[in-house]
Amino acid sequence: MTSATRFPARFSGAMWGLLALLTCLLLLSAGCAQRGAAASTPTAEPITDSDEPEARKRARIRIELAAGYFGEGQNTVALDEIKLALQADPTYAPAYVLRGLVYMGMNNDPLAEESFQRAMQLNPRDPDALHNYGWYACQRGRYAQSTELFQRALVSPVYGGQARTLLAMGICQIRAGQFVEAEASLARSYELDPANPIVAYNLASLQFRRGDDAKAQFTIRRLNNTDLANAETLWLGIKVERRLRNREAMAQLAQQLGRRYPDSAQWARFQRGEFDE
Predict the structure, then answer these.
(1) Is there a contact between 199 and 186 (Cβ–Cβ < 8 Å)?
(2) How far apart are CA 240 and CA 237, in angstroms?
(3) H or E stretch at 130
(4) CB atoms within 10 A of CB 203
């Protein structure tokens, strides 16, 4: 999954947190594309199909399969493929990154930590490894470490995932109570990927939380004017317009919320007048 993935408008509000997590986690669109450690060095010639070692090719194909199983929630099958990949090539860093993600999902912290550290030993400058180890550290409340890892990923000249790393860093900075820094990270992610609904929602929510209602209005309106709007984005839009005393816009959003999501918790709160959380 990449930051350009478009998510259906029908997702419930509860899905936004899950989608944010998946956007932050999945590495392999870039990680499996690397044919060798040389790909992380801008002056080195990358390994291509014609000269990729057979062992590395077998490991890469196994990891591509493992990533698919992991995405479907088949963790045990994914681990079997990762083991076969590492048997073929014990130095293939993306295998350890994916192994870390699988064990992270299984709440096996010792093996997840070991896997990420092994990936870092093999390639300390790999931005995908840095990103995912940073997310792991954030999930464990190690916010200073996570920020340092994210920042190291962002300086890589060959990294194409800046938007997702900035999103992850912004979410972690919010958790750490660093709201000014979080807004800067999310705003930069939004500049790079304005079509990403998760970035837009998180940025607008933080802007609203910090009392910057004009910016929050601009951001959430852009999202609500697309087919990616859902109950949660409409509800945030209602609260923003209410604070700005824009009754007409508030009423229009409420009409959409009631028509499209009559069974949602947000519509129930609107009907009860529960605007303060």
Answers:
(1) yes
(2) 5
(3) helix 127-139
(4) 27
Is 103 within 8 Å of 6 (Cβ atoms)?
A: no
Per-residue pLDDT at 21 exceeds 50: no
Q: How far from each other are the two terminal CA atoms of the chain, in whole angstroms?
A: 32
Q: How far apart are CA 235 and CA 232, in angstroms?
A: 5
Place of tokens 């994916």: 98
Using only C-alpha atoms, the chain has a radius of gyration, in whole angstroms, of 21
Structure-block tokens of residue 69: 């199983």
pLDDT band at 28; cut points 50, 70, 90: very low
Q: Which residue has the tokens 């300390």?
A: 124
Both tokens of residue 151?
Answer: 């920042």
Q: Give the integer Cα–Cα distance in Å for 49 and 223.
A: 41
**Burial call 140-160: b when 16+ CB within 10 Å, e when fewer:** eebbeebbebbebbbebeebe
Whole-angstrom distance, CA of residue 93 vs CA of residue 36:
9
> Please, what's the largest Cα pairwise distance for the chain?
66
pLDDT of 180-193, one tens digit each? 999 999 999 999 99
Quick: pLDDT tens for 129-170.
999 999 999 999 999 999 999 999 999 988 999 999 999 999
Nearest to 25 by CA among 116, 119, 135: 135
Alpha-carbon distance of 9 to 176, in angstroms, equals 30
In angstroms, the CA 156 to CA 154 distance is 6
Q: How many CA atoms lie within 13 A of 25 on its CB side?
A: 19
> In 3D, which of 207, 203, 183 has the Cα closest to residue 194?
203
